[in-house]
Amino acid sequence: MLRNKVFRTFLVVAAGICLVATGACLAVNPWSGLFCFLGCMGVLSVSILFTRQQYHEIAELSLYLQRVANGEVLLDIRDNSEGELSILKNEIYKAANALTEQADALKLDKSELAAALSDISHQLKTPLTSLGIMADLLEEEHLPPEKRREFLASMRQGLDRMEWLVLTLLKLARLDADAAALTKTPILLSELIKKALSTMLIPIEIKEQTVHVHGEDTLVQCDPNWTVEALGNIIKNAVENTPIGTVIDIAYGKNLLYTFIQVRDNGPGIDNADLPHLFKRFYRGNKKHPSIAEDANSVGIGLAMSRTILRKQNGDIDAMNDNGAIFTLKLYR
């Protein structure tokens, strides 16, 4: 305590007051001076005891903060009694608790980032390895022209895959960092569906699939470009995971809570074990139907990006099974 300049000043001032008071009382009566001296010493002793107790509690708070800084488990130091020290304890506990939660969140983010980087590295490594092998094969002088064309087509496909992956990851990074400006403008649901389908017409034709679009047209407030991207990923998923010659049903409309677009296919549906993880990045579920070959270009980020886009616009997306997979995009009103 004596290291504290304020406490030393208090002792000097209190001792001076005691001496002055004792001297004044002695001038009146010796017994009065004695009682005055004893009274002053008693008050001073009680003050020192209370001050010492407060210093002890402050030292405990300091030790508590050191333990928090070292990452130890938090102890509940909240105090429901009155007084400034109790208020300080409660505020320190709140601040320490918030810092601990932030530290846990940072650890989780770091773990997820490491996993994402590992997945990205794996997704890029596969086409790069194939490109390297095909480049070596193309150097052979006696390679037949048809094989050369086949290898060049495969290399172009690999480059397109890497380009798509990198661009998609950049879009996700922009969304995560709130760097992408989502501007809400009114647009008809039928227009959104038309724009999203325009990019999938060739794959739909190749698989001889039929798309049935129906519903109650209505205006919705959203960012058209980003919403078309989200819907396009869902339609792409339906096309890729639905057998040849089947029907994809797209319904749209509104209710009291939200405007919706529902994409339904009559494929094998989604494995129940996959449903809780379907919108996680780089998650690739198991196909239940043996006739559906797993798409080589699927890296498990399309559905994740669709949900991110919807949630950035006060919306959401969910999936379920009902004689096939059903994805419902919702934009709350």
Automatic annotation (TrEMBL):
<dbReference type="Pfam" id="PF02518">
    <property type="entry name" value="HATPase_c"/>
</dbReference>
<keyword id="KW-0808">Transferase</keyword>
<dbReference type="GO" id="GO:0016036">
    <property type="term" value="P:cellular response to phosphate starvation"/>
</dbReference>
<keyword id="KW-0597">Phosphoprotein</keyword>
<keyword id="KW-0418">Kinase</keyword>
<dbReference type="InterPro" id="IPR005467">
    <property type="entry name" value="His_kinase_dom"/>
</dbReference>
<dbReference type="Pfam" id="PF00512">
    <property type="entry name" value="HisKA"/>
</dbReference>
<dbReference type="GO" id="GO:0004721">
    <property type="term" value="F:phosphoprotein phosphatase activity"/>
</dbReference>
<dbReference type="GO" id="GO:0000155">
    <property type="term" value="F:phosphorelay sensor kinase activity"/>
</dbReference>
<protein>
    <recommendedName>
        <fullName>histidine kinase</fullName>
        <ecNumber>2.7.13.3</ecNumber>
    </recommendedName>
</protein>
<dbReference type="InterPro" id="IPR036097">
    <property type="entry name" value="HisK_dim/P_sf"/>
</dbReference>
<dbReference type="InterPro" id="IPR036890">
    <property type="entry name" value="HATPase_C_sf"/>
</dbReference>
<feature type="domain" description="Histidine kinase">
    <location>
        <begin position="119"/>
        <end position="333"/>
    </location>
</feature>
<keyword id="KW-0902">Two-component regulatory system</keyword>
<dbReference type="GO" id="GO:0005886">
    <property type="term" value="C:plasma membrane"/>
</dbReference>
<dbReference type="InterPro" id="IPR050351">
    <property type="entry name" value="BphY/WalK/GraS-like"/>
</dbReference>
<dbReference type="InterPro" id="IPR003661">
    <property type="entry name" value="HisK_dim/P_dom"/>
</dbReference>
<dbReference type="InterPro" id="IPR003594">
    <property type="entry name" value="HATPase_dom"/>
</dbReference>
